[in-house]
Sequence to fold (331 residues):
Amino acid sequence: MDNTKDYDLNDNDILNTEASDEISDKKKYIVDIENAGIRIDKFIAGNLSDLSRTHIQNLITDQYVLVNNNPVKSNYKLSEKDVITMVIPQLKEPDIVPEDIPLDILYEDNDIIVVNKGKGMVVHPARGHYSGTLVNALLFHCKDNLSGINGITRPGIVHRIDMDTTGAIVVCKNDFAHNNLALQLKEHTINRKYIAIVHGNLKDDEGRIESKIGRALNNRLKMQSGVVNGKEAITNYRVLERFGMYTYIECILETGRTHQIRVHMSSIGHPLLGDKLYGPEKCPYNLTGQTLHARILGFNHPVTNEYMEFEAPIPEYFSHLLEILRNKYSK
Fold:
C-alpha cells in the first residue's frame, strides 16, 4: 500500500460526524490501482495498524468512513481513484456502575482483596463487556476503596486472567499497594501456579518454554509465539497425570503475557483442552473455553512485606472432567 496517497483532512471535507464528537484523527486516501479490489476494512487496517479490524468495521457502520462522500459497508471493494475520507472519534470512557455480584473472596484487608474469579467473568470493562465484570462487582463491594492508577475502567486491577480462566487474582484498594504489587510483577517475584489439561501426551515430565510473545499479524484476537518484536515470556510446566490423549499439568509463570500459557502450550503442539482460539475447533467435552485455573497466587504483602500465599479451589467443572478422564484412560 505504499503508493496509496494519504492526506490530512481539513474542516471542509464532508464526513458524517456529530457536532459533539471529539475527533482524534482525520484521514483521506485516494486509492491507486494496486489496491483496487481490496475490501475497505482490510485496506484501512493495513494503513492504520493501531486500530483493530472490529473497530474499523464499527466506524464504517457508523458512517465515520465514506467513499466518494457516500457511506459503504465493510465488505465494499475499492476501485481505482476512490476517495476515502474518515474521522476517528475520541474514545469516550463509559460509565462503570457498581453491581451486586457475589464474589468468592479468598482474603481481604484494608490494602488488598484476593478473589477466586469464576469462569465466564471478564476482569474489567471493555468493548462488549461493560457490565457483569469483576470490576463492577468490586465497585459494589469495595465502594470507593480501590486504587485509581489504571483509571475508571480498571480500578484496583494489577493483573488479569482471561474470561474463561478461573482462579486467584489480587486487587488493590489504594495506590501504594498497587505500585508495590506492580513492582513485584515487573520483577517476576510473584508466585503464580496454574493447572491445565492439554491435548496429547507430553514427551517429558517437565519442561520450560521460552519465547517472545506478540500480537498475531493475521488475527488480532490471538497472540503468537516467536514474534520478533514481542515480549519475552517464560513458562515452566510439569506433568501431574497422564491420560493418553490428554495430560494434566501444572504451569509456573516467570512472566505474565497475554494468553501466555495458552500460546506457549499450543506452540509446542499441546493446546489446552477446550481452547478453540489456539486449539481444535471441536471439543469432545462440553466445555466453555479453555481448561485453565490459577490455583496458587503468592506475593509479599505490600504493607507488611509478609509473604502470603492463596489457593483457589479447583472449580467443579475441572474436577469433574478429571474424574471422567481418570475413569476413561487410567489403568
Remarks:
- The CA atoms of residues 74 and 322 lie 44 Å apart.
